[in-house]
Design goal:
Order of helices and strands: EHEHHHEEHEHHHHEHEHHEHHH
CATH topology: Rossmann fold
CATH class: Alpha Beta
Shape: globular
Strand content: 5-15%
CATH architecture: 3-Layer(aba) Sandwich
Structural class: alpha/beta
Number of strands: 8
Largest sheet: 8 strands, mixed
Number of domains: 1
Helix content: 40-55%
Length: 367
């Protein structure tokens, strides 16, 4: 059977994307979400994933709690108030709940402990990109090894299915820009953000300061780049993706951040893990990311290399909730594996309209 082409659009490496989607059509994935934090996320105005810098400290743990528990009366960490819209965790939760997907939460480095069961992979909170010294190298190596271990383990569990690798890192599009730039990809002006109009100038100033303080010419491999400019999610998910790709399909669920992870995977395959099979890897995101004309995700995907960029056609224009309609105005766009989970639902024969109604049903439970 062929995947539903009207529900998923492919940009970049189209034939490879079609082959991947057809292979996993009708199969139920394992969903993972890796939580991390970078102090970059505390810069005023850098991110809209939390109305204040203080609230952003809890965005990842709140999203994880909602992803696992859904709507509850007294959440330990309520979903963070946003200036406009609602957390993308609500999209992933709808899919996880409807199809009873297995969920793994990984703590790659957070300022506080999650309220739900999470696997601690012994990372730490990254310093701000501007320091040029984001993570100690021993932590970066440990996260990479943990990623390789869990990728292998989850691939065996997925068997004939695939993995959806989501993330939640506030400020992560800025660390993505930093890592892409250090890897030699001219990503300036091409990344997305949770703002309706991307704050490119602010991001670029942060990255330039980080590159200057790190000493750009001193990087000898991708792990050093993450240590200087990255966040803990990136290298862990790259490790998971590399080792899992030997055995099964991998969907990097996100936009700019996951393109940076794929670029990192290419470098890590070259330098440390040649047995990876990157033909088994796609990036899955939302149409709000791809249609954001203040970024350039499609061109960025082409610059990163031979990776299919698969895009759910989920549309909230007809939603009865203004918090969902705000996605159509450019707010939020992606996160917590939202685009990837939506694609997974289409591969399980749920249309974008049916998915929207499922999401609305979850919103209706909020008292």
């Amino acid at each position: 059977m062929n995947y539903p082409t009207s529900n998923i659009r492919i940009y970049n490496s189209i034939l490879k994307g079609e082959k991947w989607l057809n292979k996993y059509y009708g199969t139920k994935p394992i969903f993972t979400c890796t939580l991390g934090f970078t102090n970059t996320g505390l810069i005023e105005g850098i991110s809209a994933a939390g109305a204040t810098p203080e609230s952003r400290l809890f965005t990842a743990v709140a999203d994880a709690e909602f992803l696992v528990n859904g709507v509850t009366q007294n959440p330990q960490f309520p979903l963070p108030p946003l200036h406009v819209g609602v957390s993308p965790a609500i999209i992933s939760r709808a899919v996880v709940e409807m199809f009873d997907l297995p969920v793994y939460i990984f703590n790659a480095g957070l300022p506080c402990q999650p309220s739900v069961s999470a696997i601690d992979v012994q990372g730490k909170v990254a310093k701000c990109v501007t320091t040029g010294n984001a993570l100690p190298l021993d932590v970066v190596h440990r996260l990479f090894k943990q990623g390789l271990f869990w990728g292998n383990k989850l691939a065996q569990e997925a068997s004939s299915s695939y993995l959806v690798l989501g993330e939640c890192v506030v400020g992560g599009t800025t660390t993505a820009l930093a890592v892409l730039t250090a890897l030699g990809i001219e990503a300036q002006g091409k990344v997305n953000s949770s703002h309706p109009i991307c704050n490119h100038e602010q991001k670029w100033q942060v990255v330039q300061e980080g590159l200057k303080n790190a000493g750009l010419s001193s990087f000898s491999n991708p792990l050093e780049i993450v240590g200087a400019l990255g966040d803990p999610m990136q290298v862990f998910v790259a490790g998971v993706g590399l080792s899992a790709s030997r055995y099964t399909g991998v969907m990097l669920a996100g936009g700019t951040q996951m393109l940076a992870v794929f670029a990192l995977m290419k470098g890590l395959k070259r330098d440390f893990y040649p047995e990876a099979d990157l033909d088994n890897v796609i990036v899955g995101t939302t149409r709000w990311v791809v249609q954001d004309d203040t970024g350039d995700t499609v061109n960025l995907a082409q610059m990163v290399g031979d990776v299919p960029l698969c895009v759910t056609q989920l549309n909230f224009s007809d939603s009865i909730y203004s918090s969902l309609q705000s996605y159509e105005l450019g707010f939020v766009k992606e996160g917590v594996g939202a685009g990837g989970s939506a694609i997974a639902s289409h591969l399980l024969q749920l249309t974008p309209t049916e998915l929207m109604i499922t999401i609305e049903n979850i919103i209706s439970r909020f008292s």
